[in-house]
Amino acid sequence: MNTKRTNLIRLILLTALVLPAVAMADVQGTGFDGMPPGPYSGSGVITGDPSTVTVVPAASLGGSTPPGATGNVLSIDNRNGSGVVTVTFTFDCDGTYPDAVCQIEYDFFFEAWLIGSWIGVYVDDDGTFSNPDDLFEPPVGFPPSTSWGDNTEREPDCFGTHTITFVVGPGAVAYLDNFDTECLDTVASETADWGTLKSMYR
User: Fold this and answer.
1) pLDDT value for 136
2) Are 76 and 53 within 8 A, CB to CB?
3) Cβ-based neighbours of 123, under 8 Å, separated by 6 or more
4) What is the mean pLDDT of the chain?
5) Is residue 168 part of a domain?
6) Domain-embedded: residue 8
7) Domain total of the chain
């Protein structure tokens, strides 16, 4: 092996040791592509009517497909329900830095079929579902009003086990896919006074 190549390999290995590590992990029970279409068979915990939680091919949803969704997605269809349906997933962010935060990402599509329909997203909830990380309440029209996007929740730390719960109220449908978590090392904020900023742009 020539000297230049050896030095390059050493540099790469040294860089990998010096740079902050970014840990990524899957949210348990969200490998929908590996599940057959039909009743949900993952490790997520369901309360309410379990028959409303199914795995469906993304191609069958047409305009209701979450952005970037492929293969299968999870459907929580509570449009005919009288009470809420909840699905809770568990995950570990596998962090190594005390000040790092755990970022949870997922794609979703939400349909509101009744006035007052809603979906709440709760991270590490205490069981009261009183403080949602996100609450979606689009107005209702026909065709049904919708909300969709790439969503992100941030948790205080990357250590231990966390949960994310989707609470779907009566008259609402949620489609979920592409769950992931990432442990992000925090970057200290920088401050500068007005005189310093002016001198930079003269």
Assistant:
1) 78
2) yes
3) 104, 133, 153, 155, 162, 163, 164, 165
4) 77
5) yes
6) no
7) 1
Q: Which helix (H) or strand (E) holds 55?
A: strand 53-57
Which of 107, 174, 171, 175 has the alpha carbon at shortest distance from 139?
A: 171
First to last CA, the chain: 51
CATH number where 34 lies: 2.60.120.260
Which H helix or E strand runs over 107?
Answer: strand 101-112
Domain-embedded: residue 36: yes
C-alpha pair distances (Å), 113 with each of 110, 129, 148: 10, 22, 15
Nearest by Cα to 184 from 97, 99, 93, 101: 101
pLDDT in tens, 11-29: 333 333 333 334 445 789 9
- Count of Cβ atoms closer than 10 Å to residue 197 Cβ: 9
